[in-house]
Amino acid sequence: MSLNFAGKTAIVTGGANGIGLSIAEHFLDVGADVFIIDIDKAAWEALAARHDGLKFFHGDIGEKTTSEAFISALPCPINFLINNACISHGGLLSVCPYEDFERMQRVGVTAPYYLTSLLLQQSLLAKDAAIINIASTRADQSQPDTEAYTAAKGGIIALTHAMAISLAGQARVNAISPGWIETDKHNADHTDSDKHQHPARRIGIPNDIAQMTLFLCDNEKSGFITGQNFTIDGGMSKLMIYHNAHNWKFDKDSQGVFPL
Q1: CB 131 within 8 A of CB 173
Q2: Rounded to 5 degrees, what are φ and ψ at 150?
Q3: Residue 245 DSSP symbol
Q4: Which of 182, 227, 240 is nearest to 209 (CA)?
Q5: Residue 215's closest CA among 130, 119, 125, 112?
Q6: Fewer CB within 10 Å: C terminus or N terminus of the chain?
Q7: Catalytic residue IDs
Q8: Sheet (strand 125-134) strand order
Q9: The pTM is what?
Q10: What is the pLDDT along the chain (260 residues), one digit of tens a residue?
């Protein structure tokens, strides 16, 4: 993708690992200045030697004062806000406590709203900015015991179209819903059955999400797109699965679908 974001500045929350890190690195590759905020200081220290242009802020965006301190420390207007950070605390079956469920929503939904609000209040959201919320296909489909994560991802999709209307003329706001994205290089050897449940015939990688993020941030290429959610899952959520069809069977004990 031929892009030039020189002179532009991006924020990537949860940018020290996985999808967030890939997005941050792609922004650097096209000339942007990048600020990441993450709770994983050890991961940042390992990255620092590789990425001189990456600015790091250590903290938990689930805490109101952390978001305020982070935005107040920014030296320039922000062109791109990538709300990627999220955590998972289980759900009903593991008896996820009230506090953990509520914290999940603060990290996954409240923080993206509040960071945007702070940027507006402090006149740090550049004209024609782009905001990308990283959601998930879990907003539309679930496994057992995922209520905390699923609720947050459903919330961020709804927040996306609401923000797009409120920020019309100031910023475009879109969401990306990844499916199965392999972020662990040590777990990259997948079975044929893993791959064949995806019509694309492979597991996703962080680069798949990063490329779409940059596309949606480019006003020349995507300036007529706002308020939308883009599913990037190799077609997995479109595949109908039937017992004993296409090498799949339903296991009544685990209530799951597995390769024969």
Answers
A1: yes
A2: -60, -40
A3: B
A4: 182
A5: 130
A6: C
A7: 149
A8: 54-58, 33-38, 9-13, 78-83, 125-134, 171-178, 229-232
A9: 0.92
A10: 578 999 999 999 999 999 999 999 999 999 999 999 999 988 888 887 788 778 999 999 999 999 999 999 999 999 999 999 988 889 999 999 999 999 999 999 999 999 999 999 999 999 999 999 999 999 998 889 999 999 999 999 999 999 999 999 999 999 999 998 888 765 667 777 788 788 888 988 999 999 999 999 999 999 999 999 999 999 989 888 788 776 677 766 655 555 54
Name the H helices within the chain.
Answer: 18-29, 41-48, 64-72, 98-105, 111-121, 147-166, 192-196, 206-217, 219-222
In this structure, what token pair is assigned to residue 250?
Answer: 């339903």
In the block, which residue shows the tokens 């999709």?
Answer: 157
Helix axes 111-121 and 64-72, enclosed angle (nearest 10): 40
Q: Which of 119, 23, 111, 28 shows the shortest CA–CA distance to 71?
A: 119
| Fold classification of 9-259 (topology level) | Rossmann fold (3.40.50)
What is the H or E stretch that residue 12 is in?
A: strand 9-13
Q: What is the 3-state secondary structure (H, E, C) of 161-218?
A: HHHHHHCCCCEEEEEEEECCECCCHHHCCCCHHHHHCCCCCCCECHHHHHHHHHHHHC
| 107 in Cβ contact with 152 (< 8 Å) | yes
For 11, what's the count of Cα atoms within 13 Å in the CB-facing half-sphere?
31
Cα radius of gyration (the chain): 19
